[in-house]
Amino acid sequence: MVSKKNSTDRLSDSAKEIHRPYKLAWGITGAGDLITEIFEVMIDLKKTGNFKITAILSKASVTVLKAYRLWNTLPTIADKILVEKDANTPFIVGALQTRKFDALLVAPTTGNSVAKIVHGIADTLITNAVAMTTRTKTPVFILPVEKEGNEVNTTLPNGSKLELFTRDLDAQNTVKLGKIKGISVLETPEDIKNLIGRR
Questions:
Q1: CA distances from 74 to 12, 27, 85, 96, 140 (A)
Q2: 112-130: per-residue pLDDT in tens?
Q3: pTM score of the predicted model
Q4: When you count CB atoms within 10 A of the terminal residue's CB, does the N or C end of the chain come out lower?
């Protein structure tokens, strides 16, 4: 489920055109949790042929994708890959603010990135992109890995399972995230397909 009822209404009018691909900016932070499941959903979206995807990678996500052996899969999903150098480089913010994209998706999103977004800190490429995009009519969809009451059996790069618990602080930040105007919080990777895939 999505935390905001009007999220589908916020899809830009241009996104409803059937004559061109849906232009999606996909931010990937350095979370290993849910990364494999998210990639599976994104592969399915790409197979429809209706999406033009630009991947925006945090510095930490590069290490995570290589550890999970997803680095070589990414080019099969994304038409363009941008790797963070600093909060403004590559300069994706300009394209987001001028509505060159139909939506910004950040999945998975670490507790650290959620905390920064909630407290107005925009010192990374992805948190800056979120901050600037919420000042426009372009919808922002965020899939946090830290949720209230969440007990996670996450999959490690070697395939083994690790049980983790969400800190109260991180859970509270996720709740606050859903209250920020312009942001819709996704609960599961399938929400990406159910919401964005049904444009």
A1: 26, 12, 19, 21, 21
A2: 999 999 999 999 999 999 9
A3: 0.84
A4: N
